[in-house]
Design goal:
667 residues; binds ligand LUWPKQH6; three-stranded antiparallel β-sheet; binds flavin-adenine dinucleotide; Butyryl-CoA Dehydrogenase, subunit A, domain 2; AcylCo_DH-like_C; 11 strands
Amino acid sequence: MPNRCIRPGDNPDLTKERETCTFDTDELAANLYGSRRNLERRREISQKVSADPDFADPIPHEFLSREKAVDATAKKSKVIFQKWKNLVKPEEMPHLVNEAVGIQGFPLALHHAMFLPSLNSQADDDLAAEILPRAKAYEIIGTYAQTEMGHGTNLRELETTATYDKTTQEFVINTPTRKAMKWWPGNLGKMSNYAVVCCQLIIDGKNLGPHNFLVQLRCEKTHEPLPGITVGDIGPKIAYNTTDNGFLALDNVRIPRRQMLMKHAKVSPDGTYTPPIHAKLNYGAMVHVRAHMIYSHGHLLARAAAVATRYSAVRRQGRIENGGPEVQILDYQTQQHRIFPQIARAYAILFAGQEVRDQYAKTLEGIANGQADLLPDLHALTSGLKSVVTFMGGLGIEQCRMSCGGHGYSDASGLPKLYGVQIGGCTYEGENMVMLQQTARYLMKGVKWAEQGKSLSPSIAYLGKKSGKSLIGLKGGDITREHEAILETLEHTARRLAIDASQLWEKRIKGGECKERAWNGVTVEMNRASRVYTRLFMARSFHRRLLSSPSSIRSVLSDLFSLYLHYECVDMAQHLLEDGHCNGGQIQYLKKRLYEDLTTLRPNAVSLVDSFEISDRELNSVLGRRDGNVYEALFQWAKQSELNYTDVLPAVKNYMMPMMEENRSKL
Ligand SMILES: CCCCC/C=C\C/C=C\C/C=C\C/C=C\C/C=C\CC/C=C/C(=O)SCCNC(=O)CCNC(=O)[C@H](O)C(C)(C)COP(=O)(O)OP(=O)(O)OC[C@H]1O[C@@H](n2cnc3c(N)ncnc32)[C@H](O)[C@@H]1OP(=O)(O)O
Ligand SMILES: Cc1cc2nc3c(=O)[nH]c(=O)nc-3n(C[C@H](O)[C@H](O)[C@H](O)COP(=O)(O)OP(=O)(O)OC[C@H]3O[C@@H](n4cnc5c(N)ncnc54)[C@H](O)[C@@H]3O)c2cc1C
């Protein structure tokens, strides 16, 4: 079943790969994006962006200074949010932005990712009616300013205050110390004129904890900072350099009472405080991003896998058999072992990302109806997924980069930037070690509920099951039964790690430590339990997707799922072996199966990444281009380096030439 990416003039090795494909790449892509119609829309948007002269890049962004890159990004953003705004649906926006602008951020990123969601879910009806239409029409640009120079993780210790003044019915927003300055918020430095600012709410001298307030930062006409406001860009970073992550100090800035986001927690004119139905509803914007970033991180890994796979199919280096031709590097087992698990993980993350977005939507619906009972489960799952997926993605992209040899180190590959952007996810929206502990808190409760025979939500139902013997390697050649045996073993391992961590914690408490100190003594084990809980969820989610997939792609998805499960189990072998649930022979069996999977997937590898349906423009990689004509493209790319504008650089003329001349004349 030939792959539809084949076109005349392509690199013959890539064409051959595509001709031997055993599944319909469009069918898999349609399944990934939800429907044929969605796939067609995706292609339509890619084509229209490429054809729009307003999005044309005279030279690649890699060769621009930061200021010029910010300028180019802002210019394109204006086109998106004026000319294109009504041509795409909201759910198509992220793809349009990726195509048109790239992945390093744009002026309205935080406006969409956090400002609008905070207002939507936390502003009361009056404030929402006033500000949301303006924000949605891009009359104003906003961001979400929470992190301070001195505190990011521990929100309880944020220092920015919002003190209620009953006499004027205003809040006074203040930055009391240097380290209380807001530091890091995206698009805060130069682009935004409004922000949702997270402050300690103080009423009558009492601190009621972090709450969110809408603050105008800049004049709507001149864009100059308003009185009392110091704001700017924090400087260059590993990546996201077209984003103006910013600093902000507020010197006793007064805002009307109604600019507190009061849908859940409220302050009445006389200063009476009403708490929300769930104490953490103020943290909703973070949950929103965590729930959505899983999918976008799956896409970042998918890009890296696409680059590495296609390049490995066109790159020929060395021989496997003496006297044979130089081989495609994709034929080396080590190369397959590096790259194929990244393809499988990218699919797994994308599937899990879609499930968690649905779960988020259901939880929001509940909250809108006054029910926050789904929130703890969602918070535990998003915290775990956020941590596991960003770490997995970082390792995966780096493996893909290294698998491209020297060219992977060049910005031409797109991989260094991809890594820089992706790895930020380990830190933002809650540092990974911290968020895994949030998951662990929920697991510890789950262990207790299971002991007490209480009902458990689907994501932790496994805590209430009984373990049998591991059937890995004992269920004959039936792949369906093998998948089930592995999932049951993962369930056992996730359960065992959670129970062990709970017992370790209890033991320390019984030994005389307070709960919190005892917790700190077992957090490495707690986080292990959280990771395996999350990896179990991902495996289950992939399995659900496999079982519901059409027969035309079932076989290739099953092969990919087998590889995924075998790789994850070998990667977690320590946990499987530790309590004797699996034995060495079973791990050897899993490794043998994994090596077989590499061979099985080899003919479909290129087509599997083609089904990610990432256009050349979006991929932005000379090595990963669809046609595989990388060598000519590499030369054309390098010629655009500003060092090549002249044959003799001023740096050479001014320093190197005189030095050589002086040294020659000494002889
Ligand atoms: C047009 C273009 C469109 C593009 C965009 C469109 C859509 C995009 C949408 C999404 C974006 C997708 C991808 C992203 C891409 C790019 C991203 C670019 C930039 C990223 C921007 C980054 C922003 C930030 O980083 S914002 C700052 C984030 N900061 C943090 O996350 C801080 C982490 N710290 C905390 O969350 C908390 O302090 C803490 C660690 C959880 C502790 O809090 P504390 O109050 O001390 O509570 P505890 O005592 O520990 O817990 C008490 C109790 O509450 C529970 N809890 C805690 N938090 C929550 C929560 N959020 N929800 C529910 N429950 C919570 C906790 O578990 C505990 O429960 P228990 O008592 O029952 O155990
Ligand atoms: C690219 C990027 C974009 C960002 N965008 C925004 C934004 O738009 N808005 C915004 O408000 N913020 C933003 N941030 C800030 C981000 O949310 C914080 O950096 C993050 O929450 C971590 O906080 P911190 O930097 O204070 O790290 P710290 O809390 O100081 O953590 C430092 C280290 O200490 C350890 N640690 C800390 N606490 C614990 C604990 N309880 N248990 C175990 N270990 C611990 C961890 O190893 C951690 O890595 C962004 C950051 C980045 C990198």
